[in-house]
Design brief:
It is a single chain. By secondary structure, the chain is of the alpha+beta class. The chain contains 21 helices and ten strands. The strands form three sheets. The chain has a four-stranded mixed β-sheet, with no helix packed on it. It has a four-stranded antiparallel β-sheet with strand order 6-7-3-8, with helices on both faces. Helix 9 runs antiparallel to helix 10. The chain is globular, with a radius of gyration of 27 Å. The termini are far apart.
Length: 455
C-alpha cells in the first residue's frame, strides 16, 4: 500500500488519490536522502540551524505554554527520547493552539500555533524537504521561497501588462489553508518522499487537533497557518496548478494562494477562469471564491497590495486598500496610551512606516505618499491639541511655538474641534514639517526617494 494512505493512527485510509509510482519503478527512482529523511531531520547540524531559526522568530507559546526561552532546558532533558520516537516513527505532535486575527478585508483568519518543540521539528523538516522540492517549482511562483519576493511578482505582473496582456484572471482560492485535502497533499509528497516515517509524521502534523477554549477538535482537512511547514506544503500542492498553467502556455504570477493570470482579451480570460476553476475542483479539491475572483483590467484589481495605472506603460502604485490598512494601524497606535509624549509616539510609529515603505518601494505614483504625509502630521497635531485640553494651555503653548499672543488666544478659543485645528494654519505654523523632520519622524515621500535612489 503506498505511503500516502498511512494514517496518523496507524490505520490505512480508504480512498484518496495517490499519484505515486508503484513497485519497481518507484524503487528505481528513490534517492538515498529521500528514503532517510528522518535521519537528516534529526542530524545535529540541521537541528542547530532549526533551533537558531525558532529562537530568532520567537513567537507565542502553544497549548503546553512553553516559551522559546524554556526550549533549551527542555531539550537537554528530553531530546534523547524525542529523537528515538522520531527515528522509530512513533512521535506524536501535540495539538495546536487556535488564534484568530482580523483579516484586512473583514472577517477573521484562523492561525494554529504549534508548541515550540513541534515548531523546532517542523523547521528542521522544512530545511530538509525544501531542497528536494524547490528546484522543480515554477519560475512563476514567488511566495515562501528563498531568493523570491512579492516585489518580484509585482514587477513581473507589470511586465506582462506591458506586453499587451491587459486583462487579468484574478483567482482567489476559497479558504485555502483551511480546505487543503490531506489525501491529495500526501499523494504529492509521496511522489518524491519514500521515507514512510517522514510521511507519517507530516500526516500527524496535518491531523493534529486544534485547541479552542480548552476543547480540542480533530482536523480532517486544512494545514493551518502558523507552523513552519505549512508554507512549503502549500507550494507543493499548488505546484500542480503552476505546472498545468505552464503546460497551457499561460503567463501568470502566483504568491501562495494568490494567483493572477494575464491574457489579451476578456473572452480568453473568462475561458481561463472557467477551466482553472474546474481544474482546482477536480484535481486538487479546492474551490474558487466567486465573490473575490474576477476577470478584469489589472488597474481595477490589486495584487499583493499594489495596483497599476491604465497607461500603455503602466506605473505601479499603492492600492487604496493598502492605504486604508495603514491608516487603521496608525489610528490604533495613536489610541493606545493617549498620555504619551509626541517623541514616544513617533518612536513607535517609525518602525511601522519604515517597514511599509520598504514593501511599497516600487511605487511610481507618488501623490499618495504626499497625501499620507500630510494626513500623518495632521494626526499628530490633532493628538497634541487634545493633550493641551484647556484654552489657557493651548494659548500658552502656541506662544511658545512662536505665534503672536493675540493670534494664539484667538486660535485657542475658536470653538472648533481637534481635527479642524490640526489642519488649521496656526497648528501648521506651530508644528511645520521641519519640526517633525528634526524630531526624526519619517516622511514617506522622502523615504521613498531614498529607497529608489539607493537601488
Amino acid at each position: 500500500m503506498p505511503e500516502t494512505h498511512l494514517r496518523c493512527s496507524g490505520r490505512k485510509s480508504r480512498g484518496g488519490e495517490t499519484g505515486a509510482p508503484s513497485g519497481a519503478a518507484r524503487r528505481e527512482h528513490v534517492r538515498p536522502e529521500e528514503s532517510q529523511l528522518i535521519e537528516a531531520v534529526v542530524a545535529r547540524e540541521n537541528l542547530l540551524k532549526a533551533y537558531t531559526r525558532v529562537m530568532s522568530n520567537k513567537g507565542a507559546a502553544g497549548v503546553d505554554r512553553m516559551t522559546v526561552e524554556q526550549l533549551k532546558p527542555y531539550l537537554q532533558a528530553h531530546w534523547a527520547q524525542i529523537k528515538a520516537d522520531l527515528l522509530n516513527g512513533t512521535y506524536r505532535p501535540q495539538a495546536v493552539r487556535c488564534v484568530e486575527i482580523p483579516k484586512p478585508n473583514g472577517g477573521m483568519r484562523q492561525l494554529g500555533i504549534p508548541p515550540v518543540v513541534d515548531r523546532l521539528i517542523q523547521q528542521a523538516m522544512h530545511q530538509v524537504l525544501s531542497p528536494l522540492f524547490e528546484p522543480d517549482f515554477s519560475e512563476s511562483s514567488y511566495g515562501f521561497r528563498p531568493g523570491r519576493s512579492a516585489q518580484q511578482a509585482v514587477t513581473q505582473a507589470r511586465a506582462y501588462v506591458v506586453e499587451g496582456r491587459r486583462w487579468v484572471v484574478d483567482v482567489d482560492v476559497e479558504k485555502f489553508f483551511d480546505r487543503v485535502n490531506h489525501d491529495v497533499l500526501m499523494s504529492r509528497l509521496a511522489r518524491r518522499i519514500s521515507d514512510k516515517r517522514a510521511l507519517y509524521l507530516i500526516r500527524c502534523y496535518l491531523q493534529a487537533g486544534m485547541m479552542t477554549g480548552g476543547l480540542t477538535s480533530q482536523r480532517v482537512e486544512g494545514t493551518p497557518q502558523g507552523g513552519p511547514l505549512s508554507p512549503l506544503l502549500s507550494n507543493i500542492l499548488l505546484d500542480e496548478l503552476d505546472k498545468e498553467l505552464e503546460r497551457r502556455g499561460h503567463k501568470f504570477c502566483r504568491y501562495a494562494d494568490d494567483c493572477n493570470i494575464y491574457v489579451r482579451t476578456k473572452a480568453a480570460g473568462e475561458r481561463v477562469m472557467k477551466s482553472v476553476s474546474q481544474f482546482l475542483s477536480r484535481r486538487l479539491r479546492l474551490q474558487v471564491n466567486a465573490d473575490k475572483s474576477a476577470v478584469a483590467r489589472p488597474w481595477r484589481r490589486k495584487f499583493l497590495g499594489y495596483t497599476m495605472t491604465w497607461h500603455k506603460q503602466p506605473r505601479l502604485k499603492v492600492a487604496p486598500e493598502s492605504v486604508r490598512r495603514l491608516k487603521v494601524k496608525v489610528r490604533r497606535i495613536l489610541r493606545e496610551g493617549r498620555g504619551r509624549s509626541l517623541p514616544e509616539v513617533i518612536k513607535e510609529l517609525n518602525p511601522l512606516l519604515r517597514g511599509w515603505m520598504q514593501y511599497f518601494r516600487l511605487a511610481e505614483v507618488k501623490g499618495i505618499f504626499e497625501e499620507l504625509d500630510g494626513w500623518l502630521r495632521r494626526k499628530l497635531r490633532c493628538r497634541v491639541w487634545r493633550q493641551w485640553k484647556r484654552p489657557f494651555t493651548r494659548a500658552r503653548n502656541l506662544m511658545k511655538r512662536g505665534l503672536q499672543k493675540r493670534r494664539a488666544w484667538k486660535s485657542a478659543t475658536n470653538g472648533h474641534g481637534a481635527w479642524w485645528n490640526a489642519g488649521a494654519s496656526h497648528m501648521n505654523e506651530a508644528f511645520p514639517k521641519s519640526y517633525f523632520d528634526r524630531s526624526g519622524f519619517i516622511a514617506l515621500l522622502d523615504q521613498l526617494r531614498k529607497l529608489q535612489f539607493s537601488k
